[in-house]
Amino acid sequence: MSLRVPVNSELLHWALRRSGRTPEGLSSRFRKLGDWLEGKVQPTLNQLEDFARATHTAIGYFFLSEPPEEALPIPDFRTLPEARNQPPSVDLLETIYLCQQRQSWYRDYARLQGEPPAAFVGSATLDESPTVVADRMRQALGFDIEARRQMGTWTEALRAFIRLAEEAGVLVMVSGIVGSNTHRPLGVAEFRGFALADDLAPLVFINGKDSKAAQMFTLAHELAHLWLGASGVSDSEARILPDDRTERWCNAVAAELLAPLEAVRAESADQEPLPDTLQRLARHFKVSTLVILRRLFDAGRIDRETLDAAWQAELERLKRITPAGQGGNFYNTLGAHVGKRLARAVIVSTLEGQTPFTDAFRLLGVRKNRTFYEEARRLGIQG
Fold first, then answer.
1. Which of 277, 278, 95, 270 is nearest to 193 (CA)?
2. How many separate domains does the chain show?
């Protein structure tokens, strides 16, 4: 007879909440779950281990006397009520922990390689004009408006933006899932991105579940965090003027970096219908129509009432036209998930015998030698 584990039922409820799972969703897998949650019956050790896997919870948590209070390991700059009023999900926490591990590895690697610190990290202050800082960032990154205008799609523009950020020394990671688990999608409602400031391994993570146009703004926003030297998780939205001074400043820098106010004024036409203006300027600057709406308001082209009404209408339109997510080829997305800068460094270090294959697989999120060597080939690295 299997021994049962005396576990506090509050811990079971806590594990369900943090994982986003429901008793109904797991009832077929755990037929006695309702009784466990009410404290009528205790699970066996095997059942508890299975429940831990289903809720992405370390088994050790279930031997505590009460649920722990989990806090984000970096400052929380999120402004939307649905994010601020809820504890962080296990998906967000694990994503941050994984990126911190990757950053720690790269920091050590950079020291060994003698890489110079990134001078831009912490080079700006909140007292500086967002316009001035955005101009410095534009020069440092070399991603001007005309280059963006010539690009055919937002995807092309985003790839170019990421490439330039990585060339400047930033580890940029874009993923819509936790690690390499395709069954664990990240929620845009919880966060859009985060920045981990470090002068040797500055890192930006972008929630890949967002639209490509929205990811452009998130990348610009998180880069502003790096220039400020302020780590943190964000749910940046162009329409909102956050109460937090740091988020308000980063939003202003991001907007000015992507769609400078004077350029928006020069490109807008008084007699053009607003929907036509949104589409035209969004294509021109390769940002979302929502960012353009905010910039038109900042430029004095529309009033607050028009902004609010048009914003809601545009949200509805975007929901209707947004296609279902496409999985894509794994090798095409691996470089984005971990960032080509990190992937190249890990693969080279591993092939030179400095990093064990087990550590490399964990950092890259791969399980097979074939996948590792295929990515090396794609990056032009000879084994």
1. 95
2. 4
328 part of a folded domain: no
pLDDT over 80 (residue 328): no
**Is 270 exposed, middle or buried (CB count within 10 Å of its CB: 0-12, 13-18, 19+)?**
exposed
Domain boundary pick from 293, 320, 347:
320
The predicted structure's pLDDT at residue 251: 93
Q: What does the mean pLDDT of the chain come to?
A: 90
Q: Are 182 and 170 in contact (CB under 8 A)?
A: no
Mean predicted confidence (pLDDT) in 203-222: 93
What digits encode the pLDDT tens for the residues 60-103? 999 999 999 888 999 999 987 666 778 889 999 999 999 999 99
Specify whether 88 is located in the same domain as 237: yes
Measured in whole angstroms, how far is the alpha carbon of residue 179 from the centre of its chain? 12
Residues 20 and 52 reside in one and the same domain: yes
Show the domain range for 354: 333-378
Q: What is the pLDDT of residues 150-183, one digit of tens each?
A: 888 888 999 999 999 999 999 999 999 999 888 8
pLDDT value at 1 more than 70: no
CA 172 distance to own-chain centroid: 9
Residues 225, 350, single domain; the answer is: no
Q: What pLDDT was estimated at residue 86?
A: 80
**Secondary element (H or E) of residue 256:** helix 245-258
Q: What's the pTM value of the predicted model, to 2 decimals?
A: 0.90
CA distance 172 to 105: 15
Q: What is the pLDDT of residue 327?
A: 47
The reported pLDDT for the residue numbered 198 is 97
Lowest-confidence pick of 116-125, 311-320, 325-334: 325-334
Q: Which token pair is 92?
A: 């967000």
- Distances 338 to 94, 105, 188, 200, 205 between C-alpha atoms, Å: 14, 13, 19, 17, 9
The answer to whether residue 202 sits within a structural domain is yes
Q: Is 217 exposed, middle or buried (0-12, 13-18, 19+ CB in 10 A)?
A: buried
Could you please report the per-residue DSSP string of 132-186? Answer: HHHHHHHHHHT--HHHHHT-SSHHHHHHHHHHHHHHTT-EEEEESEETTEEEEEP
Q: Per this entry, what is the length of the chain?
A: 383
- 111 and 146 share a domain? yes
